[in-house]
Write a structure and sequence with these properties.
With about 600 residues, the chain is an alpha+beta fold. It contains nine helices and 22 strands. The chain has a seven-stranded antiparallel β-sheet with strand order 10-11-22-13-18-19-20. Strands 12-21-14-15-16-17 form a six-stranded antiparallel β-sheet, with no helix packed on it. It is elongated and about 175 Å long.
Amino acid sequence: MSLQGSFLTDDQFLCSICLEVFTNPCSTPCGHSFCMACISRYWDGTKVTQCPLCKKTFQKRPDLQVNRTLREITEQFKSMTGGEVSGREKNRGKGGFKGVEELKKRKTPRRLPEAQITLTREPISTLAPPTTNSLASSVPKDTELTSPNQDWTHPPPPNSRSSGRRRFTLSGAASLQSLPLCDIHRRGILVYCRTDHVFICPECETEDHYDHDTVTIEAEWMETKAKLVVSEQQIQEMIQQKTRKIEEIRMSVTELEVAMERETVGSVGLFSMLASAIERSQAQLMEVMEISRRTAERQADAMIRDLEREVEELRRRESALAELAQSDDHLHCVKMFSTISNPPPTKDWTAVSVNADLGTSMVYRSLAALVDKFQKELKNVLETGFPTPGLEPSPVRQQPRVKRVQEYALDVTLDPTTAHPRLVLSEDRKSVRCGGRHQLVPDNPERFDRVVCVLGREAMSSGKHYWEVEVGGKTDWDLGVARRSVNRKGKIDYTPNNGFWFLSLRNRSKYAFRTEPSTDVHMNLPPQKIGIFVDYEKGQVSFYNVDAKVHIYTFNDIFSENVYPFFSPCTNKSGKNDMPLIITPVNMSD
């Protein structure tokens, strides 16, 4: 055996964190060893518990114990090296963790001191033939070595002293590497029988395995080592396959989250459109029925008045005839009878009746058409998924649509004549926040006096328009559009029926649209900037999360007059909601 192979190096006993010989060594679940104090300090400063060497992450910080066996071996190694400690020991704990790069640079193993190498005379039958020249270089020149021509397979008798051969042995831990002996012949096991797959000594080879396929153990190891490389490559390929599968599964989870976001946005838009259509139809139905009722009442009142006049005339004729019957003036009776005997002219009321048609059929037909459209869109969702035709597509999925929206950018500025007295507008009229007290401003008809809101200057009476508002850092706000004729004094019901279409945030996390009733919206990505798009001809007001490029919601209604941008920073909540709403330029490159 090679004596060099039995040497122990200090690298085998170094902690890869402090680069010093182990002190109270402990092992992690992945099999790597460190000083107990070093690995504890390393994990104390991190949020994620992982091995410093292989970077394996542990869900729970391991409960480490001192590796007693490794500690005993380390102590034995220190005693073999005379208690020698590297000069870097004085830096332990001062320079932090040094990592493994410095350890990799140390390639030269430290040999045991020569004092640990002893020369003893042993029977030649217990020796193994030398396989390297490293021994000769480490032995004093006056030491007698075995002749290179010595026949190792036929050694002299144990009691023979003529050969003068010497056996070199290592004391301490190195003696654990001594050559194993054959139980039968007490000779060193140097041969491997491939036929029987056993390790044997030269005597066994001569007696029992002379016709077998035998090789030296070193030769067998060289072939096994080549196979080991192939096995290692196979295992590495398996590891790579498993790693790719892990990434594939993680990617599937990410795609599932994206699909859920798309499904959420699409379903909210789809059902909100149906809900809005039903609400509008219900309102129209009530309005049409009320109009029909009022018309029928007016018609009935007119007919009743006409009939009452005719009845009154007939009663006068009836009274005149009764008086004529009691008169004694025969001449007068004859003259007047011909005049009052014929009934007065009246209207033929036989076919006249009050119109009982409520006029709701038109509303039902319109609602039936909307429901039919909803069913078609629902069928498209089943076949192709979201986004579907008829709903505003998400900007993050279809970039051409986003560019078309951004091409209608409107330079919006705030109108100070409409601002609530507590609102503070910037000089460029591009931002608004709520102050702590009322300002001295004229109480003109255009100004809101109850709710802290303000309108934009730009009126929209046709076409398409788009603008963006920064909302980051705020806990409450309202954004959208409002009709020109909305009520601005006193308490106001902010609903589409009253001319307001906007999105609201309350308490940092509750998003809702002011429909009847209000529509809550859950957003996984809280928006920092809101985009508002108005299509006047289609009667649509759409809202977008600009940074995430996600469509949030679309109102569908009918505009019959000018609409204006609507802003409400809400009250400052004792400073918690003091951040302003900022109208930002539209970035056409997004």
